[in-house]
Write a structure and sequence with these properties.
The longest helix has 17 residues, at 21-37. The protein folds into 2 domains: 5-82, no CATH class; 89-172. It is α+β, with helices and mostly antiparallel strands. The chain is built from 5 helices and 9 strands. The strands form 4 sheets. Strands 3-5-4 form a 3-stranded mixed β-sheet, covered by helices on one side.
Length: 176
Amino acid sequence: MNRLTQFCGYADDILVNARSLPALEALCVEISREACRVGLVINPEKINYMRFSVSPSRRSVKGATINGVTYEGVAKFIYLGTLINNENSLEKEIQRHILASNRTYFASISLFRSRLLSTASKIVLYKTLIRPVVLYGVEAWTLTKEEQALLIFERKIFRRIYGPKYENGEWKSGTN
């Protein structure tokens, strides 16, 4: 993290981090030179530029001109399935995962409502179908207050799996 530039590549996705615009320009020149050497062409239309800063006033969304090419400035983008934003906030990423997990749950709701499956089978379904969707990439998250949203989602699914309770002659739904 103390270097002036960093280069992360996976398949055809490349992420370049630089502490300054001149350092970014130098790295882009080197990447272009090496790509041309092996016959690859970099498409400027598929390149985005994002500026991170501690100060909100310095997080501009305007583009950057590097080597005579102007790149579009963005406030957020998805890299390897993870939402990266210039606020360095996980809240929107966690909301995205919870929404995807809700879609997975409702796509398989007939299984969770089935009386033919036991509660234990439904829990196994939850752990194999839904939990991986909500927890994809969690190893890289630093959870604080956002952890509550994940716990609330999990309790919601378990309430639906276990169903209402019969107490004092009436059925009651579980609460958080």
